[in-house]
Amino acid sequence: METQYWFKSEKFIIEKGEDEETNPLCYGKSLATWLSQKLAEFGYQTDVIPEDWGWCVVCERSDYFLWLACGCMTSDEMKENYSPDDPPAGSEVVWHVFPVVEVPFLNFLALFKKWTGKLDMRTPVEKLNSHLVAIFNSESEIVLCDEPQA
Questions:
Q1: Lowest mean per-residue pLDDT among 10-14, 51-55, 94-98, 144-148
Q2: What is the DSSP letter of 37?
Q3: CA–CA separation, 118 vs 25, rounded Å?
Q4: Which residues constitute the domain of residue 55?
Q5: CA 46 to chain centre
Q6: Which of 33, 46, 101, 149 is the residue whose CA sits 20 to 30 A from 62?
Q7: Residue 126 contacts by C-beta under 8 Å, 6 or more apart in sequence?
Q8: Between the CA atoms of 97, 103, 104 and 108, what dihedral angle is there, to the nearest 10 degrees?
Q9: Vertex 50, ends 121 and 38: CA angle to 5°?
Q10: Per the domain annotation, does 27 fall within a domain?
Q11: 117: pLDDT confidence band, cut at 50, 70 and 90?
Q12: Phi then psi for 54, rounded to 5 degrees?
């Protein structure tokens, strides 16, 4: 896995029923939407997609998929008191973002290029990482933190 970003912020809201598109307590829609808008400033044409684990921001589709995983960590107390009608405040969770680059399983030509070292997957993820750092550093409402301990 590539670099991971953990942070606290009051900037992102959790909408009532948001996790109906993912799984209980898997939030991050406003974070993913915001990152999608910020990445557009760097020339990315993104899509925001709900996944069972949170929210995906697709950044590039070519021989590989380049995307961001957006989600959050919730406390044990939040899990015990879970109510879909009363989600936690965005300031109560630790937000989590990390970039992923992968070759689609059925893209045999791209898999061959990857296996023979002819597909550069490092440069796109490094570029996306540098854009994430710039985005996070320019936002005063985001406070990076260490990974929460389970």
A1: 144-148
A2: H
A3: 40
A4: 5-143
A5: 12
A6: 33
A7: none
A8: 180
A9: 60
A10: yes
A11: confident
A12: 155, -135
